[in-house]
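Batch manifest, entry 17 of 40.
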Amino acid sequence: MRDQETAPGHPERRLSTKETAELLGVKPETVYAYVSRGQLGSRREPGGRGSTFDAKEVEALARRNRRESSGSSGSGGELSVRTRITLIEKDQYFFRGVDATELAARHSYEEIAEWLWTGELRPGITFTAPRASVAVALRAVDALPEHTSPTDRLRVAAIAAATADPLRFDLSEDAVLGTARTLIPTLVAALPPVRRAHRDEGPLAHRLWARLSGKEADEASLRALDTALGLLVDHDLAASTLAVRVAASARAHAYAAVSSGLGVLEGPLHGAASGLAHRMLLDVLDQGSAAPVVADELRAGRRIPGLGHRLYPGEDPRARALFALLKDVPGAGPALAAARDIVATTARHTPLHANVDLALAVLTVSSGMPTTAGETIFAVARTAGWIAHALEEYGERPLRMRPSGHYIGEKPPQPLPE
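Output type: structure tokens
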């Protein structure tokens, strides 16, 4: 076959699937994944037993992969990673090409997760946690100190659940999807319930509510929480998502990849930002005006939490969608007014719009949730996006997320220290 492809009359050199996989440094299955994504063309030769690939096209793809793994975007800029999951542009964002805010308005969190993972909608789907997985996670979480943060509990629960899954090292798409559908509800089940009367069944937002608020859930509040989860499912290569892709690039299993994301999420500049906005809202409600609170923040040299976003020159579309729903939530009026006061007061100093952290803070404050609730909502929601990115990364060349260090230390050889 190879001799025929390189013989006179066949100007383009063709490679077998095995040769293509070896040149790209991937498994043969990944070669066909490239084909299905439109990144590589294939052709069946008459009488041939398998597909063949244009050598020049394969070599070009290999060069692109090497360029990305070295941390180059091809233009000397920041690290760039090809993805089909989320696009952010012109104050909008899209999940697999569909407006994310419209998806969140019409579909449940679980349905949006399935859309991210498979490109298919499964109306009415709910996720169920296996009893064995929940039992192991609860034992691990119950052993933690009482003051442990929710994100720490989620991270411990993820690792504990992994130990109960002997198939966790199976990185095939079906196996990872099975993990995703059980891990997310396991994480929620591992959080201590606030209300005694709760049921670990039905939509995930209903189960999560019982672990965040002592109030009886009304339809408008549950819809706002479910929509918040859907809006926060993914946001391109945020810091935590990049950590997940690095872990997946090293072929860490899905539980470990999610744990990597949770570790980064806990940073004050990422998932914890909504907690800062929550505290600020409480201060504004307590003092009756945003002016003294904003003044104190600026005097201390701190940025005003819940305002501005580096990817949106205008209003954060997630905040806009969530604020619209919060108008229907009973008792949310004072927190909404306080948020508007913060935006208007700060606008005198610098033109910034509300971001999703401020909208989340309105939801958590008006629902009687703790300061950490926004971070918990963020973590649970983003787990689905992390799984989507891990799945995508498992189809790429292993260890491609390996930038080179630029050494600026003492020039060797240096004498041994005494």
